[in-house]
Amino acid sequence: MVLCTVPLGVLKKGNIQFVPELPAQKREPIERLGFGLLNKVVLLFPYDFWDGRIDTFGHLTEDSGQRGEFFLFYSYSSVSGGPLLIALVAGESAIEFEKTSPAENVEKVLETLRKIFSPKGIEVPKPLQAICTRWGTDKFTYGSYSYVAIGSSGDDYDILAESVCDRVFFAGEATNRRYPATMHGALLSGYREAANIVRAARRRAKKVDSPKKMDVNNEVKYEVKVDNIDLDDLFRTPDAAFGGFSVLHDPSTSEPDSISLLRVGIGARKLGSGSLFLYGLIMRKNVASLAAMEGDEQRLSTLYRDFGTKLVGLDGLGDSGSSLISRIKAAVRK
Q: Burial letters for 110-139: b for 16+ Cβ neighbours within 10 Å, e otherwise?
């Protein structure tokens, strides 16, 4: 199995040869989606001259052809702990930016900052260090972020996220319909595909390890052992399901204070479609309250704040979680 995480720009460029070739259903969204260019100038100054309490500030130019040049500044003083300022360059200006030397671009940024702060009597010092990105010509990116171009749609993100025959998997911001063009979107897509690869490996292992039997047409079938019951199989028919939440109750009791197993799908358009799953333990009596709420965001907030439930991986459920899962599986065997 292979996980492909290269940016959409590299896929659009066709520099990676897939053997066999990717199916048309996969190639088409790659062609339809757009991949834009946003460059940055990162400046480290000896001190914070712009007032670190300001997160962002903008700059307007009289020349409409340069409206994307250093149009927005981000202050990272409160985040990085140092006097760090980032200038953004977009549109046609981002393309021209890469044709100019870093030294010239840094000087242009400083000139822009002087125009903003000199009238206020504030001197702009020379930066201690400066970095200029060149994402458009970088052979490992060929751009910065994906976007829905004319002729494409959000569905293209979902198609791009699909695996090819459970062999080639795809992650990256351009595979996350909910959070495209973001770092957290890329991160969540990695979690999602890690879960998908594990599930694919388990399915393959079941086929290899399970005893064979012949069906009425003398074709080989695989019989899955009941001892190897997977949680995915159990959650296909949950005791309760709402939004991205699904619940399995303790089959040994119906007490309101008994513990139930909660699963939450994160980062997918619909539950079970390439989701990253997190788990938690919740009292049965609280399930109905969650189901009655509007939206998963409110449910998650209530889950943490009011019910004290933490969402973790399966290994983080502890002994109580392991015992509950064992009881649920045992009930299926009967």
A: bebbeebeeeeeeebeebeebebbebbeee
Q: Average of pLDDT values for 90-107? A: 97
Tell me, rounded to whole angstroms, the distance of Cα 222 from its chain centroid.
35
Say yes or no to pLDDT of 218 above 90.
no
Indicate the pairing of strand 168-170 with strand 2-4: parallel
pLDDT over 60 (residue 110): yes
Q: Which residues contact 1 (CB under 8 A, 6 or more apart)?
A: 166, 167, 168, 169, 197, 200, 201
Considering only residues 212 and 250, tell me which one the structure prediction assigns the higher pLDDT: 250
Can you name the residues that pair with 58 across neighbouring β-strands? 72
Please enumerate in sequence order all residues whose Cβ is within 8 A of that of 239, keeping only pairs 6 or more positions apart, or say none: 247, 248, 249, 260
- Tell me which DSSP letter residue 180 carries: T
Query: What's the chain's average pLDDT?
Result: 88
Query: What predicted TM-score, i.e. pTM, was given to this entire model?
Result: 0.65
Residue 315 belongs to a domain: yes
Q: What is the predicted pLDDT for the residue at 319?
A: 85
For 41, the 3-state DSSP assignment is: strand
Residue that finishes a domain, picked among 177, 197, 217: 197
Peptide bond into 125 cis (omega under 30): no
What's the number of domains the chain is made of?
Answer: 3
Give the CATH number, domain containing residue 117. 3.90.660.10
CA distances from 122 to 48, 74, 113 (A): 11, 18, 10
Output helix, strand, coil percentages for the chain, rounded to the nearest 5: 40, 20, 40
What is the residue range of 120's domain? 38-132
pLDDT at residue 161 in the model: 95
Same-domain status, 149 and 273: no
Q: Confidence band (pLDDT; 50, 70, 90) for 165? A: very high
In this structure, the answer to whether residues 82 and 55 fall within a common structural domain is: yes
Q: Is residue 204 part of a domain?
A: no
Domain final residue, candidates 79, 103, 132: 132
Tokens (6 digits) for 176: 């996350």
Cβ atoms of residues 29 and 177 within 8 Å: no
